[in-house]
Amino acid sequence: MNSATKMQNRFHLLTLCVLVFVCAWPLAGFAESLVSTVDRNELTVNQTLRLTVTYDAQANTSALDTSTLASDFDILGISPQTSSSTTMVNGVTQSTVTTRWSIVLAPKREGPLTIPSFSLGAAKSQPININVLGAAQSPSVDAVTQPLAVSVSVEPEQVYEEQQAILTVQLVISQRLTDLGGSQLAIDGGEIVPLGQQTFQQLDNGIATQVVELRYAIFPEKAGTITIPQLRYTGRLGGRRSLFDAFGMNGEQVIARSQPVSITVLPRVEKPNAQWLPSKSVTLTEEWSGAVDRWQVGQPLTRTVTVRTDQQRSARVPPLPTQQEGEGLKRYQDQPKLDDESSDKGIVGIRVESAALVPSQPGELLLPEVRLPWFNTESEVWEEAILPARMVMILPGSGQSSEEQEPVMEDQAGSTPASEFVTVSGPSAAYWKIATAVLGIIAAVLSFLMVRLRRELNRLQRQLAAGHTGDRVAAYQSESQAWVELQQQLKRPVSVNTRTALHTWLRCALKAESSDSLHTLAVRSGDDRLVSLVAAMDRMLFHNHGEVNSSELASTVSELRTALASKSSVQMSQDEGLPPLYPK
Length: 584
Fold this sequence. Notes:
Elements: H1 3-28, E1 34-38, E2 42-44, E3 49-55, E4 73-89, E5 92-107, E6 111-115, E7 119-120, E8 123-124, E9 128-133, E10 148-155, E11 158-160, E12 165-173, E13 177-182, E14 190-204, E15 207-220, E16 224-228, E17 232-237, E18 252-257, E19 261-266, E20 278-279, E21 281-288, E22 301-310, E23 329-333, E24 337-343, E25 346-359, E26 363-367, E27 370-376, E28 381-387, E29 390-394, H2 402-405, H3 427-466, H4 469-476, H5 479-490, H6 496-510, H7 518-525, H8 528-543, H9 550-565, H10 569-573
Parallel strand pairs: 2-9, 11-19, 20-27
Antiparallel strand pairs: 1-3, 3-5, 4-5, 6-9, 7-8, 10-12, 12-15, 13-17, 14-15, 16-19, 17-18, 21-22, 22-25, 23-25, 24-25, 26-29, 27-28
Helix pairs in contact: 4-6, 5-6, 6-7, 7-8
């Protein structure tokens, strides 16, 4: 083979290598890659960060395993998204598909943390180091002005089994937050009863803060130690909830966590022939459906005995001891009624036992005392709630005399004195007794229902009496009437009456609850000017600082009313700034 042939073969081989490289080089660009990025590498323990994981190919949105994040982070939300694009270069069309996961993370503790690497097929991302500062370590955030803070307290810290303890959770909000929510409270070895939620404002080092207070009653079920776990609450900072952004999703999420709290539970103190009933106080009362001093034979009266236990549930109240009345009395026992009344001080358990009593003979009748043993959690000794015994006089039945009820005495000759009447017995007397018993039961049931109805009416009257006048106006007054009243007040200098009229109109216009504060309603309206004017009004009225221009306030609420009129009631319900924290 000559040199020219060798040179030609080498040229062909070099050309083939170049062609192979040129063909393989575009394929190298199609190698799948997985990349992790974060929006910040340093944050405080009360802040969140956004992790973005990008995969440059088509993938199932559930294919990414995020379980490795759980050891150091709380995952507040995952938003998967798949996008595609098409490009044309020199007449050649290329299509690319990208799968992206946007993950909101909240650190569980301070110090250096690591976002681990992820794997998807042959692709693998790189780990990312994160530095988490304490709330007071941040150079730009003062601990007093944290957007959201939470504190937990329990009273008392040492209780007996089944004794009530009050858990108080306070959320302190120093900046405008939306989408406020939190984890559901759950503990092992105890029952939790929500007592209510209230919202109020307070000054903290000269800074106006909003406080959301949640209260729970906790009843431990066994001796030992019960731990209230760490509670987590989140909110969105800076999200503008307005007419054009009903969901306010463009703000940064903040998070607040409480410290765990422990309760020491002492064992129950046993007493022979007594069921365990720990309480602050126990009382027994009785009611009668009629006049006991005019009680007649065959007349049914309903005796209702009510047991009230302070700081205890009605389900824990044992049945009252069985009454041992004399032979001249018949008892028709009704089913007991259980009810629990809750307040900020805890639970009041109420057990009601009723019985229809029908006397069968005249004379003295002894109603024995009722005793209910219970354990006093304050003095830590056993006590007894007592309903004293009473003696009543049963009168003869209608149309009968005392002599008719006494047995007939014959003289020595066996004849009946002319002045005596013989009581006749027979089938008609038996029918009369049966009819009397049936009527007695019906009368007892009706009397019991009347007592229950009267008690419910009294309770409703007390609730109505405890309500505020402004609440009643907001409940029954139309939006147009409230608007007319507000316009009349705005023609005068700003006063407490102006604030009340504005509060009433906002409740009607936003269809809000009567417990919502004026500040909450102003935030919910989405109008920043109104929020500022309300804050200025409160400073002027309650702190004698600054002033508010009534004409500016009038123009602001007029523009707000026009904007609200263009929204449907469905959209308005989505604008609520602070949804209820209790799960449905």
